[in-house]
């Protein structure tokens, strides 16, 4: 007689728990003032509907921030009921129409379910609402190109004028130096120089001779 021993194993599975997987969120979003902003959070859950609430965290002056619920009663705020994709991912979208500067902040979805051990925040998206720069002169690109071309031409003309003036000045100085040398008569300069040299050399001897002649004349005049 063959005896077959059968062992029964009991495995306890906690069906009250839910497995929640967060999908990557867009890290940041920049929206121009008075434009529409679309924010989305996505996740997947093993079973049941997850309660989703949008929260915003605004950084205070002292550097701290605390999440607070988005006021869905505001007319420029719209929250959809969630869309389930083919891959089984649930996505919720928050729409801010005519975004304002104080709408800037970190937007997160707060996920809550009775089977969750702890409530979960999604990664979140930081929204930055910026004011566009006001153009002082609203001109077209072709006009800008024409202005830049004109500035380049003026700069080139200024450089050429400055260089021409410097060349003319240098040429004028050179001509003046040549005129100075042309006005001098080298023969007269040499003769004058020779006369000065002869007077310096012969001057003392001529003075002695003159003194002797004067003394003789004086002696001849005596009786």
Automatic annotation (TrEMBL):
Keywords: Immunoglobulin domain. One of its GO terms (biological process) is B cell differentiation. One of its GO terms (cellular component) is B cell receptor complex. Residues 24-121 form the Ig-like domain. InterPro entries: Ig-like_dom, Ig-like_dom_sf, Ig-like_fold, Ig_sub, Immunoglobulin_dom. SUPFAM superfamilies: Immunoglobulin. This is CD79a molecule, immunoglobulin-associated alpha. Pfam families: ig. The keyword ATP-binding does not apply. The gene is LOC109906628.
């Amino acid at each position: 007689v063959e005896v077959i021993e059968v062992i029964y194993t009991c495995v306890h599975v906690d069906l009250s728990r839910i497995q929640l997987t967060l999908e990557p969120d867009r890290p940041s979003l920049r929206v121009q003032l008075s434009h529409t902003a679309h924010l989305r959070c996505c996740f997947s859950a093993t079973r049941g509907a997850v309660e989703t609430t949008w929260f915003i965290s605004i950084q205070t002056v002292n550097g701290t921030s605390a999440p607070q619920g988005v006021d869905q009663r505001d007319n420029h705020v719209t929250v959809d009921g969630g869309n389930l994709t083919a891959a089984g991912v649930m996505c919720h979208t928050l729409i801010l129409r005519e975004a304002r500067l104080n709408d800037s902040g970190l937007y997160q979805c707060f996920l809550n379910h009775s089977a969750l051990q702890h409530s979960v925040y999604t990664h979140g998206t930081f929204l930055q609402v910026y004011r566009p720069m006001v153009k002082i002169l609203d001109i077209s690109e072709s006009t800008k190109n024409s202005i830049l071309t004109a500035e380049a031409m003026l700069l080139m003309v200024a450089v050429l004028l400055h260089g021409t003036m410097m060349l003319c000045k240098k040429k004028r100085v050179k001509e003046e130096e040549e005129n100075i040398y042309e006005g001098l008569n080298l023969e007269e300069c040499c003769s004058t120089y020779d006369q000065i040299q002869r007077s310096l050399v012969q001057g003392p001897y001529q003075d002695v001779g003159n003194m002797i002649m004067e003394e003789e004349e004086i002696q001849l005049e005596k009786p």
